[in-house]
Structures are given as structure tokens and as C-alpha cells.
Amino acid sequence: MGNATEPTTDVLTVSVDMLNATSSMFTTAVSYLVSSTDKLDLDADTSQFDDDPVGWKVRMREIQGAIMVSSLVQVLIGFSGLMGVLLQYIGPLSITPTIALVGFSLFNVAGNFAGKHWGICCMTIFLIVLFSQYMKNISVPSLVYRRGKGFGMTWFPLFKLFPVILAIVIAWVISAVFTVTDVFPNDPDHWQYGARTDIHKNVLQNAAWFRFPYPGQWGTPTVSAAGVFGMLAGVLASMIESVGDYYACARLSGAPPPPNHAVNRGIGMEGICCFLAGLWGSGNGTTSYSENIGAIGITKVGSRRVVQWGAVIMLIFGILGKFGALFTTIPDPIIGAVFIITFGMVTAVGISNLQFVDMNSSRNLFIIGFSLFCGMVIPDYLKNNEGAIKTGVVELDQIITVLLSTNMFVGGFLGFVLDNTIPGTPKERGLLIWRKLMGEHDPESEEENLKCYDLPFGMGFIRRTFCMQYVPFCPTFERCFRWKSQPETETEMVDVSVISSNGGKTN
To answer: Which residues, 6 or more positions from 12, have their beta carbon under 8 angstroms from its beta carbon?
Structure first.
């Protein structure tokens, strides 16, 4: 996402991403593929199981093919501009339930991890809060080297930039000491066992020092209609979550809401990454990671350099198996503590979008309340009642079930439909302030504000080439200047400078 500040290198986002919580949409879709491959006629060709007696490689190849084909649909939707067209009708009442339910829907995941040992979890939470909130303005002396000046001392904002890293390391070391000294008993039935650092020691011991993943490592991917339709539902739900993540990331980074071309480009690139993930046989697609957005809110670091350095580190860890496996020794309660903090930040960012709408309006109260509640109720019902959707068509059952099992899709879809069908003025819906934050009534201001969404190179050529304004994923795409045709009365005009000076709050 774009960044309104100077780039600052930080490995916080990398550390959070290393916790590697798989997207719920893809997980749900994959579960359908696994169950469907169980029903394959395995007697048709037993030679394929000579080196795979359990048959898991057959499932992996089926999942690979489904991810690769369904990702092409995501590429088409993104780069063709279809997603950007929908953005014309998306406002705060659509974005709020989508983002908020990202955090709300994962409370059980955080609780399950934290519940392994609430003592370690609470200590980690305490350290994160202490470093990120109470000690964020405290700098520590640090030795630096400057060319031409030699060594010197400077003050480094350690606690502001690395609160989560510091908390994880401290809690990790304490858990390791308690594991070695058997303060945490080596008894799986003991309530403190979940905080031991050697629970997954076999992963570290068995991991190879070097391993080079390659395309088709499980064999040639296979494609089936049932698999593709099931995974397609996961991809569609993932796109809905990604749009919400883009807006949340922009809010926390101090950047304006993402324009059409940025969203189109993001969805298209996610599709390409999903295709590569399927080709390499990772077993799941690639999508935006909400926990990293929560990390931005804690550290106030929203630089794209973080993602670039994180990509390099993850490539290295993907090849050096021992180093990647080392992170499996982080006890679950520590991960649960990080989840509680980051999921809470994501939820708060979603709710904060309500500051733009009139919350004294019964219309808006109904939309937001109904969307949030249904976004929790419907997926929970389907989770507890497997096979509840029975249309008579297996593929259709899979699509409907995966979509309705995704909290973000249900809440966001209901908010989108109700906000665009129930009568309400632009001011009541919060669209006036929403649009003005993008500078859409001042072309010069808009161009300046949206520079953070420009491509890192080639912008001179793109601006000189007239036809580029018709390419949906180029920064000069003419549809990014949406809503201009909708005039407003003078009394409805809002001074954005006042909003900015109040930290995004309206009077």
C-alpha cells in the first residue's frame, strides 16, 4: 500500500507474517477439495501411489490446479478494472463491516492460541502495550557510523519501532528457560505444557538445512470442475477482504483511500501471486494479511520498504529450512497475544470509518448493526451445520457454502447492498467527507495526494502516453477521478483541512 511518510526499514511486519496464519477463505475452499479427492477412483491407476502410499500428493495436485485456474479469474477481474467499477458504490458503510469482521471473525483463533497458557499470553500483551503505548517516546542511545564523520552516538526510537519484536523475544526467552528447567512440565496433560518451546522440536530437527522449492514438485497439477468452483469461491471472498485491507492499510499509513487503479492493480497482482503459489504447490493461495495491518497501527511504520525487506527475508527462510523451522518453537500463547493485539487493531480501524457517517440516522444504525450481526451469525451457523446448503448441484453448494462461511463477505455484501438500495443522502451516508479525503474536488490536490500510489518507475512515460489513461491499472486511469460529475451544494462542502488537523475526526 501507499505510504505518506518517508520509508523506514522495520522487520516488525516480517515477524508477524512469519507466524503464517493461513487465510480462512482458502482454508475453507481447500477443505472441500480434500473431501472431494477422497471420493476419487483410486483403483483406476495405482501406479501414482508408488511413492505416495497415503495419497496426499494427489490431493496437492488437485489443489494446485484449482488455485491456478481460479487465480486467472482474479487476474482478469483486477486488471480489467471490474473491481474498480464496484468501488464507485463502496462507502464507509460497506467498508466498516468488511474490515471489522476481519478481526471479529478471528477471535476464536486468538483465544485458542492464548488459552494454551494465559500467563505467558498476558505477559506478552503487557510487554507489547508497555513498549508501544507507554514507552514509544523513549529513545535509547545507539552507536552509529557516518561516512566522513566516523563513529558517534544517536538516539534510536527502539520501543516505537520494535515493540512486538521485543515482546516476542523476551517472552520467547523466558519460555525457553522455563522449558529447560522444567518449570513448564513435559506432560501433555499439564495446563502449562502449551507454553513449552520444544513442542514442535521434531519440525526443527527434521527440517533440511537447504531446500529449493520448484514448480510441479508434487507432480503435474490436475484440474476438475468441482475443485475449480470450490476454490473460485475462496478467491472471490479473498478479494472482498483484500479491498477492506487496502482501505485499512491506507488509513493506518496516513495515505488517502486507494483509488481505482491501485485497487485494480492490487487485485490483479494477488491473482498472479496465487497462480505462482499454485504452480509451486504451496497448498494455499496468496492474499493480503490483516495481521500486518494491525502491526502498522502499533508501530506507526507503514513503509513499503518493510514489505520489500520482508520478501527478501522470506525468500531466504524458504530456502534455509532450519531457520524457517526455528519459528515453530515460538509457543502458541505468545502468538495468541500478538493475534489479540493485531486483530483488535484491525477491528478498530474498521469501526473508525463510522466517523464519516451520520450515526444519529436510524438508517445507518440498521445497516451497520444488521451487517455486523449477520456477518457473525450466518458463518457460525454453517460452521456448526455442515452440509446445510443443498441445492442439488455439488459445485454450487461449494461456492455458496464457502462464500457464506466467510464473515467478511457476508457483512461487506450486506452493507454494500443495503447502503446502495436504502434511500439516504450523500451526507448521511458519509460519502461527502469520504470523497473529499481523496481530494476529488481539486484536481491539483488529488494528483498530489495520490502520488503515493504511482508506480516506482516509468511514470514519465505513462503520463506522456495518452492511451495509458484507459488502462485500468495505470495511475493515469481516467476512472480514478470518479464522482466528479456529482455536484454538491455549498452547505454540504466539508473542509478536509479541519479533518486532517483533528486526526481524521469530524466535528
So the answer is: 161, 162, 163, 164, 165, 295, 298, 299, 301, 306
Within 38-162, where are the H helices? 56-80, 82-87, 92-104, 107-114, 118-129, 158-161
Instruction: Report d(CA 478, CA 470) in Å as an integer.
Output: 6
Q: Is 312 exposed, middle or buried (0-12, 13-18, 19+ CB in 10 A)?
A: exposed
350-383 burial: b if 16+ Cβ within 10 Å, else e: bbbbbebbeeebebbeebbeebbebbbebbeebe
Phi, psi of 154 (to 5 degrees): -145, 165
Q: What are phi and psi of 280, to 5 degrees?
A: -80, -10
CA 407 to centroid of chain Cα atoms: 14
Question: Letter for the amino acid at 316?
Answer: I
- Give dist(CA 461, CA 436) in Å, integer: 29
**Tens of pLDDT, residues 57-99:** 787 888 888 888 888 988 998 888 888 787 778 788 888 888 8
Three-state SS for 153? Answer: strand
The phi and psi torsions of 392 (rounded to 5 degrees) equal 95, -15
Chain-centroid distance of CA 474 in Å reads: 23
Q: Which residue has the higher pLDDT, 501 or 412?
A: 412
481: helix, coil or strand?
A: coil
pLDDT of residue 24 exceeding 70: no
**Among 261, 251, 327, 259, residue whose Cα is nearest residue 293:** 251
Q: Which residues of 218-248 are buried (b: 16+ CB within 10 A; e: fewer)?
A: beebbebebbbbbbbbbbbbbbbbbbbbbbb
DSSP, res 456: S
Distance CA 193, CA 185 (A): 6
List phi, psi (to 5°) of 145.
Answer: -120, 125
| Residue linked to cell 479473498 | 238
Give the other-Cβ count within 10 Å of 387's Cβ. 8
The structure's pTM equals 0.69
Q: At 196, list the grid cell.
A: 513449552
Asked whether the beta carbons of 220 and 142 are under 8 A apart, the reply is no
Checking if the pLDDT of 170 tops 90, the result is yes
